[in-house]
Each structure stands twice: as C-alpha cells, then as structure tokens.
C-alpha cells in the first residue's frame, strides 16, 4: 500500500466514523481501466454502496502486461453523491483520455451515469517528473481541506484553481511520512 494512502486512511479517515471516502490503490485504478467489463471486478474492488467519494490515481500506461509502466499520473476524484468525476492533471490534458475511460467504467460499475469534468485550472508542474508528487499533494489537500471539513449538506468547490503546489515540500512531507512508518515498524519489532 502506498505510504500516503496508509497515512491518510489511518490518521484521518479512520478517525471519522461518518467518512465514506475510498482511496483506491493505483493497482486497482489500473485494473479498472484495463478490464473490458468493469462488472467482473465487483468482488475485487471495495463495496461502494455507502461510498460518497472515490480518489483514483490515473496512469497513462496502456499495456496491461506492464502494471508499473506509463510516464504520467493524474488524479480523478469521483463524487458519487453528485455524479461528477473531477480530473486534476498537472500536465493538462495528458491523461484526459485515460480519466474519461476510467470515469465511464466506474459509472458502469456503480450503475450510475457520471459527468466527467476536466479541471484546466489544476496546478501545473514545471518539469516532467513531479506528477506523482502533485497527485499526492492534491489528494491530501482535497481530502483534508475540502471534504473532511464539509458538513453533509454543504456543497464544496472542488477546484484547485489558485492553489500553488511546492513539489519540493511535497517530497519532503512524503519522506517524513515514510520515515514515521519506518520508525513505527522498528518500535513494533523491538
């Protein structure tokens, strides 16, 4: 499990009893886009019957035999309650086709039509190597600063427009999270 997912799930989502948010693993997102009939994945994926939002990392790899391939990551945030899939791409529109395909397949799996909304105001990376950091920082921001702060009746703007992402600070934060897990593992083993 990616460290950021474990950190967000353990330290934040598990503390919110009313939280019905799923952080879908990159491998599950990849499996969803690669599978011709998404209904065949129903038993392999989480039960989404009570889920309000799903975060999906999207990769541009099209080769099903190369699960760790591809060259770019973006983030798809699906609001099941609103029927909208928000796409955040730091090299817009690099992963737009993959995000649209994933949205359609997830809609079939959920038995619900989803509107795809590409967000061109997403923060843009300045090089060709920060996409993974952008996905992690955006996921954390959208989860902690937007969804977890909203009450159930409140509509929340999912725009990242005007938000600056410091990739260097994002990397530093991820290293701190990983180091925390390493130290926790050492404490448990001793």
The total count of strands amounts to 5
Unreliably modeled segments: none
By secondary-structure content and strand pairing, the structural class works out as alpha/beta
What share of the residues does DSSP label as strand, in percent? 5-15%
Side by side, the strands of the main sheet go: 1-2-3-4-5
Helix content: 25-40%
Separation of termini? 23 Å
The main pleated sheet reads as: 5 strands, mixed
> What best-fitting shape do the alpha-carbon axes yield?
globular
The helix/strand order is HEHEEEHEHH
Rg measurement, Å: 16 Å
SS summary, helix count: 5
If you had to describe this structure to a student in words, what would you say it looks like?
This protein is of the alpha/beta class and 190 residues long. The protein is built from 5 helices and 5 strands; from the N terminus they run αβαβββαβαα. It has a 5-stranded mixed sheet with strand order 1-2-3-4-5, sandwiched between helices. Helix 2 links the parallel strand 1 and strand 2. It starts with a helix and ends with a helix. The model has no long low-confidence stretch (mean pLDDT 85).
């Amino acid at each position: 499990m990616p460290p950021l997912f474990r950190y967000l799930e353990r330290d934040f989502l598990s503390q919110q009893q009313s939280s019905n948010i799923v952080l879908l693993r990159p491998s599950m997102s990849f499996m969803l886009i690669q599978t011709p009939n998404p209904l065949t994945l129903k038993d392999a994926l989480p039960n989404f019957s009570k889920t309000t939002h799903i975060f999906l990392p999207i990769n541009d790899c099209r080769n099903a035999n190369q699960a760790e391939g591809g060259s770019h990551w973006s983030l798809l945030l699906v609001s099941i309650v609103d029927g909208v899939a928000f796409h955040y791409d730091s090299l817009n529109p690099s992963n737009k086709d993959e995000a649209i395909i994933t949205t359609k397949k997830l809609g079939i799996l959920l038995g619900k039509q989803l509107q795809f909304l590409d967000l061109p105001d997403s923060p843009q990376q300045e090089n060709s190597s920060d996409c993974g950091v952008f996905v992690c920082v955006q996921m954390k921001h959208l989860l902690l600063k937007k969804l977890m702060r909203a009450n159930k009746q409140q509509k929340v703007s999912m725009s990242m427009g005007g938000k600056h992402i410091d990739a260097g600070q994002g990397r530093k934060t991820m290293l701190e999270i990983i180091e925390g897990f390493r130290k926790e593992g050492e404490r448990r083993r001793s």
